[in-house]
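Much of what follows relies on a compact textual record of a protein's fold. With that in mind, consider the following protein and its fold in token form.
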Amino acid sequence: VLERASIDELFVDITNHCYDKGRLASSAKFDSPKGNAHFDGEEKSYATCEEGQKLSTCCMERSVNQSSLQSWRNDTTICHEEESQISQYVNEDDDDVILALQHGCFVAKLIRQSVFDSLGFTLSVGISTSKLVSKLAASYGKPNGQGLILPTAIGKVMEETKIKKVRNFGGKIGKKIQTLLPPGEETMGSIARFLSLADLSAALGREMGQMVFDACRGEDGELVKETVGALTKSITAFKSFGPLSFPALEKWVVLLATDIVARVELDTKRNERYPKNCNIQYVCEFVSFSFWFTFIPKLQHRALVFE
């Protein structure tokens, strides 16, 4: 399942692929000392891919041998690895979670390589058991790598992650939560330490309070929603610059117009659609100017230039 999160970001749910018993049986285990974790219900393996524009799924079906499966380790940063000691687990279910995450790392490596080979784009990828945590894991993989947050490291990651850096917490919700915390406390771990479910529900409402209560503990029940093939609703080109003469300004307008028209032509060819309107906006310190007109088929590049 693939969900487009923004123009340069997507989520991929590869749970079923990674939990396939045949793949688990062929997976190599981590070479780390003893660790411990406990899970309630089914855990998910998610990947957050950033800075790329295309995902090739064929790489997920390649047959791999033991040595190639282990090769993901060189490209993966395990967050707080010293506290994520994971080779021996209390029961078989826990072991399956770790092996599934390991295979998720290998799939992430194949995806990154496939995108680079096809398009020349690099990807930073985060792998973990939820959308929220995999998004955080991606930051450990920047600019061209992948990060893994294991269940045993989630608490530590939350303690050091600022509220405003977490997906869906950067706006009004994050600011509201910040007012409930003591001065100087600004991490997700602070929420878990200082605010009870009752506190959060009273301030944010029952549903939102429960969501925040779970999120600050790294628990995220939001599923990846299928959006493969979803089309953008607009095409934008813009440029910020200092004071310019009119000839220099016209040069930039022509470049922007040329870029827009070329991208519209490409989108029309790919998706068999054509835009209805074009909006032009110019803003400076003292003046704001905006107008729109109907986009005409076979629009010439200089039609967007004021003449």
Observations:
- The chain is about 40% helix and 15% strand.
- The two ends are 49 Å apart (CA to CA).
